[in-house]
Write a structure and sequence with these properties.
Distance between the termini: 53 Å
Protein name: Molybdopterin oxidoreductase family protein
Number of strands: 30
Bound molecules: iron/sulfur cluster
Strand content: 15-25%
Shape: globular
Structural class: alpha/beta
InterPro entries: Asp_de-COase-like_dom_sf, MoPterin_dinucl-bd_dom, Mopterin_OxRdtase, Mopterin_OxRdtase_4Fe-4S_dom, Mopterin_OxRdtase_prok_CS, MopterinOxRdtase_cofactor_BS, Prok_molybdopt-oxidoreductase
CATH topology of the largest domain: Rossmann fold
Pfam family, one: Molybdopterin
Helix content: 25-40%
Cofactor: Mo-bis(molybdopterin guanine dinucleotide)
Strand order of the largest sheet: 5-4-18-17-16-6-7
CATH architecture of the largest domain: 3-Layer(aba) Sandwich
CATH class of the largest domain: Alpha Beta
Organism: Alkalihalobacterium chitinilyticum
Number of helices: 23
Largest sheet: 7 strands, mixed
Length: 697
């Protein structure tokens, strides 16, 4: 039962942070029109009234004192307030000048997936149809791209979960790889606990004994970057021990014989040698997983943010395939989507190589169809661009001269940050749309004040693939505009206003439904009314009388012949492995109190009290070799940069590994150290593995 406070309105919406998209009511004071708190939504079927510390405090960013409320223009190195007219004049002048002098591709767009589906859809259209540039990509490249690439290659369609979350309660075994669910998607844990109460087992593969690993039946404490070997070792044992569902595999998978051969050498002893996990634990995990009638393989950035991320996803997905688990009740495979709309945001065409509906920009039929929806000549559709990190290579080469960043803070979240900072400094013109002065915004020539998540309506797609409604709580603060309104006014300035003739998000959603029609991520049958009536609708949903698809791949996969493609992997090392000069592993990740680049959570008092600064977490045995003590200072050095951090000692980490959370900027940004080695398919940088040396600071 939610508390209805006198003089307040309760508006039903979802948390702005992670892909769980927990249901909440925002409390609005009717007199002051200020947001004063939240109430959990007990009736929301995915999260049942649970919120994590970030969700409970998310409302505090809405009316925050530090909100940017007017356009800002940089003059002599200082930001000064300006009118929208002045800001737009400057943008029009510079965008047109750069394109006249250097061609259409001189401009670029860097998007984000914390925006609604409506806005994510428009980012691709804005870049390609308004600015006419091939250079568009987004922060999901650093988040979900390896899961997307791995699912596409194996299952033929990329929906992050093949099953609805409430079914997890009925699962017998969770195999979790590189996922610290208890901290990163905390409200998910309730489903795992419900299943454990009924006897389910949990296996967790992670170099750290995270809060998730602590509650596991088996913790596979592998060396960073050896996930492909561990998965292959598990596949080897599933085959050798007779745990393969042969009928399912024969009927529904290709390449089984090839996979068998490929993992032949991955005996428990060999797997143990490469991963550092004890043989007994590997064998025990395989038996538990192999004997469970219903199992779900779950993973997250731990296996995905690697230069082998796509291969990792393919191999772990194959564990579910060999057991015949995908397409069935309370079974399957799932990745934990990082950002609010990490699923929807990657489907609608803001990726360098994709058009709405998860179509490929290299497919002439897709170009023809989407051009017809947009009302442009197919010949005007730019070719594929480059990935988020590679855009900064293009800046260095002088090919990209201007950029518009929306809903993203790559000055903290990208790898090898000095390269990113150099790129921002080199740009002739940078526009940033944001509602706080992020580290990226500080580089801008013009900052456009954008509405927060509670000042506009639209839809997101949660980590299950369920399309849900985000509701407007209050009118925009100050002079801020929504991202779609900003793209619209710039389109008008670029003489393309006719392509952005929208009055509200519903009109954008209706166009987007049509643009997605017939694609892999087909939203055509989803309407705002259906979402309200049905507690969200799962895609694919090709017509208004289609029920949506809570369980994916019941009969066939999304590949041309309907069969899953088991992988044949070329095993290789991570981009960097420890050597004499840099003898340790560095890995990065999240803490429960902060979200991604921290731009919002670092402005939330309670969360900062809990975790004010980053730290270097390491084993006491390792620390003692370097004369380091808890609370002392350490200097970490990689081939890219160096930084000083406070030491935090814990026995819950391997003795060869240092962990640092990445939610801070500038001199506290661990991404100055990380390796930009890219996965060859997903172009995901290797945030999770690099080699490091250290000394007492
Ligand atoms: Fe839920 Fe994620 Fe928000 Fe926490 S951050 S309340 S888990 S959506």
């Amino acid at each position: 039962q939610n508390l209805q406070h006198e003089g307040e309105k309760l508006i039903s919406t979802h948390c702005c942070y992670c892909g769980m998209q927990c249901g909440m009511h925002i409390r609005l004071d009717e007199k002051t029109n200020k947001v004063v708190g939240v109430e959990p939504r007990y009736d929301w079927p995915v999260t049942l009234g649970k919120l994590c510390p970030k969700g409970v405090t998310a409302y505090q960013t809405i009316d925050h004192d530090e909100r940017i409320t007017k356009p800002l223009i940089k003059k002599n190195g200082q930001f000064v307030e300006a009118t929208w007219e002045e800001a737009l004049d400057l943008i029009e002048k510079n965008f047109k000048k750069l394109q006249k002098e250097h061609g259409k591709d001189a401009l670029s767009v860097f998007g984000g997936v914390s925006m609604t589906n409506e806005k994510c859809y428009l980012v691709g259209k804005y870049a390609r149809a308004v600015l006419g540039t091939r250079y568009v990509d987004y922060n999901g490249r650093f988040c979900m791209s390896s899961a997307a690439g791995g699912f596409m290659q194996t299952l033929g369609t990329d929906r992050g979960s093949t099953l609805p979350w409430p079914e997890l309660e009925h699962t017998d075994c969770f195999f979790m790889a590189g996922s610290n669910t208890a901290e990163c998607h905390p409200t998910s844990i309730q489903w795992l606990w419900k299943a454990r109460d009924k006897g389910a087992k949990m296996i967790v593969a992670d170099p750290r004994e995270t809060p998730t690993a602590r509650i596991a039946d088996v913790h596979l404490d592998l060396r960073p970057g050896t996930d492909d070997t561990l998965a292959s070792g598990m596949l080897h044992l599933l085959i050798k021990e007779g745990y393969v569902d042969e009928a399912y595999v024969n009927e529904r998978c290709n390449n089984y014989e090839e996979l068998k051969q490929a993992v032949e050498g991955f005996t428990p002893e060999f797997t143990s040698k490469i991963t550092g996990i004890a043989v007994e634990k590997i064998v025990k995990a395989a038996h538990i997983f192999g004997r469970s009638p219903r199992s779900v393989v779950m993973f997250a950035r731990g296996i995905e943010q690697q230069s082998k991320g796509v291969d990792n996803v393919r191999l772990y997905t194959s564990m579910a395939l060999l057991r015949g688990q995908i397409g069935k009740f309370a079974s399957g495979v799932a990745t934990f989507t990082g950002q609010a709309n990490g699923q929807g945001g990657r489907e609608h065409g803001q990726k360098a190589d994709a058009l709405p509906g998860y179509r490929k920009i290299s497919d002439p039929e897709a170009v023809k169809y989407v051009s017809s929806v947009w009302g442009i000549d197919p010949a005007e559709m730019p070719r594929a661009g480059v990935s988020a990190y590679e855009m900064f290579d293009e800046i260095e080469e002088g090919r990209i001269r201007g950029m518009h960043v929306m809903c993203s803070n790559p000055a903290v979240s990208a790898p090898n940050l000095q390269h990113i900072w150099n790129g921002f400094n080199k740009l002739d013109f940078l526009v940033v749309s944001d509602f706080f002065m992020s580290e990226t915004a500080e580089f801008a020539d013009v900052i456009l004040p954008v509405t927060s998540w509670a000042e506009d309506e639209g839809t997101t797609t949660n980590l299950e693939g369920r399309v849900i409604r985000i509701r407007k709580v209050k009118d925009p603060i100050g002079e801020s505009k929504t991202d779609w309104q900003i793209m619209k006014v710039i389109a008008e300035r670029m003489d393309k206003g006719h392509l952005f003739n929208y009055n509200n998000p519903r009109e954008i959603f209706d166009e987007f439904r049509l643009a997605s029609k017939g694609g892999k991520a087909d939203y055509y049958g989803i309407t705002y009314e259906r979402i309200d009536q049905e507690d969200g609708v799962f895609w694919p949903c090709p017509s208004e009388d289609h029920p949506g698809t809570p369980t994916m791949f019941k009969e066939k996969f999304g590949t041309p012949d309907g069969k899953a493609i088991l992988p044949i992997v070329n095993y290789r090392d991570s981009g960097e492995v420890p050597d004499e000069e840099y003898p340790l592993y560095l890995t990065t990740g999240r803490v429960v109190f902060h979200f991604l680049s921290g731009s919002q959570t670092r402005r939330t008092e309670f969360l900062m009290q809990q975790c004010p600064v980053p730290y270097a977490e390491m084993h006491p045995a390792l620390a003692s070799q370097y004369g380091l003590v808890n609370g002392g200072k350490v200097k970490l050095m990689t081939r890219r940069s160096e930084m000083e951090l406070e030491v935090r000692l814990t026995k819950a980490i391997r003795e060869d590994t240092v962990f640092v959370p990445y939610h801070w900027g500038k001199e506290l940004a661990v991404n100055v150290l990380t390796n930009p080695a890219l996965d060859p398919v997903s172009r995901m940088p290797e945030f999770k593995v690099c080699s490091v040396k250290m000394k007492k600071a």
